[in-house]
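Handout, section B. The chain below has 130 residues.
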Amino acid sequence: MRIGELAALTGTPPKTIRFYEDIRVLPAPARTASQYRDYDQTAVSQLRFIRAAQALGLSLGEIREVISFRDRGETVCAHVASLLQRRATELDERIRELQRLRDELVRLAGRARRLDPRNCDPSLVCHVIP
């Protein structure tokens, strides 16, 4: 199948497919006699995997690594589990950071409600945000 057909089947723009090939996340397809890309069904499953892995927060480098292991015939389950656990841990930390930020925003909003603008120092941009 040609790149347009692959794009339609996977919801991946042709430009993105070419980019994935350039960075070796997706292997270069066979070429027709007239040099058109000629994809097989494997490309469909690989693109679906790439998109799903990205949606879970894996980087293209991590995805390329998983595909590389698989291409060498290695079992990838343990490696994927490790990547997913690492991503979950990163998300836990990000959630904690966001909760701290939210607490600070609530604190500053409360401070803003208590301030009288007439008492603000005109040399400062804003008394609410220190």
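Note. The radius of gyration is 24 Å. Compare this with the example in section A.
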